[in-house]
Fold this sequence. Notes:
Distance between the termini: 62 Å
Strand order of the largest sheet: 6-8-9-11-10
Low-confidence stretches: 95-109, 134-147, 435-442, 483-492
Strand content: 15-25%
Shape: rod-shaped
Helix content: 40-55%
Order of helices and strands: HHHEEEEHHHEHHEEHEEHEE
Amino acid sequence: MSFRQWWRTTLSPLGLKLFSVIVLVNVLISGALYFTVARSIDDGFIDYLRRTQQQRIDTLTTTLAEGYRTHGSWEWLTDNRDAWQQLLRVALAPRGTQSRTGDARQPPLPPALGDPRQFVLLDEQGRRIIGRSGRHQHEAPTSRAPDELRFAAIRMGGRQVGSLGYRAPDGVFNTIDRIFLHRQLRNLGIIIVTLLISALLLAGGLAFWLGRRTRAMALATRSMAEGDYSVRLAVRGRDELAGLSRDINTLAASLERGRRDRQQWVADIAHELRTPLTVLRGEIEAIEDGVRPMDQRTLGALHQEVEQLGRLVEDLRLLAQSDAHNLAAPMTRLDLGRHLAEQLEESREALARHGLSLAHELPAGIMIHGSPHRLRQLWSNLLGNTRSYTDPPGQLAVTLSCSGEQAVVVWEDSAPGVPDQALARLTERLFRLESSRNRRHGGSGLGLSIASALTKAHHATLTPARSPLGGLRWTLCFPLASSAASPAITEE
């Protein structure tokens, strides 16, 4: 594998972009930093030279003025190079002096600026006394110094007795640059290159780390898009990428569970439809073969199976409408206590035939927004569940009360009960217990699912729990009409 292929397979497009951006930004910053600092060093160093030289020139002119006062003329320096060099060594000694403003001791003047050849001494008439030229003192004096020199007046008692010529720092910059500035810029370049290499290594590591994680996420989502929901990502750390990995794992688990439930749902529906169809086919074949006569009893059995099949289809249609949020439930303001009491009283005889007694406490005047038709379906499904799964002699107790902004209906029956671990699954479609509450009464397993869907259509909650009577307790919480928003009407 070539380096280019390894690079492409190791880094994701996002990692490559991140690496490129980091490299570009670091190169630009390093270049700008180098040129800015180099310019600052250049200007700052020249400024330092100027200030330092000015202090040395002030010291030198003061020393020359004192020498003139002592000797009364410049004859002691006329072409006397030894005296001139001695004076320069004393005046420009590395020990430094205090500036007139009281600043701290300055560093020694660079050798190029302390070279005696950089200075020239003129008398009050502007004639050269010593310095810069090899001419003899008897040669014709020059009235004009070289253009590159600057001059500082030498005064004694308010009278100018001479001038000191010197070269500006800019004039000797090439010498200083070779001994100082180039060294500083070289060190700066080494530092910046080192920092740039470190930044590139860091960018490469970060891009590799980010690219590997994002590539794993991309492969996981691609697998899920192709229908493989078993993929799981390793979750490391607590950053946003770790949170995204957890979300992808949760999504994969949810999709896997949804597919499994859907497959189970289709299989269970097929089983539920096959049972009455098998019975119908058997009855019809028996009639065709002459095994069973075509009488009222046979027709009644066929009619019963058709009714069971029709109820199952209707239940499935209602659940499909609920899933599509298209369940017809025209809402109106109604008295929940009175409405529920009427439904229970109508079912008292049917409960008695199953050996169940009824007790209820349903005060009137508790108003909610509800659909009378859908509420009757809800009470009918709860009654059917109680009749089918409560052992005689048993009892059903229903109470209604207000709790804050909610109307609370407590529906509880007697034994047998439901294991705690199965309570949360009671409203799942086609779920049945392998216990006393099982399929012995021929239920389809959709009644409680329909009850849950009808409850949600009223913006209410349906919560199961164990009942003190030994059976099952359902707690239904409806928002009161006074605190609920305007009722919405959902049409088919």
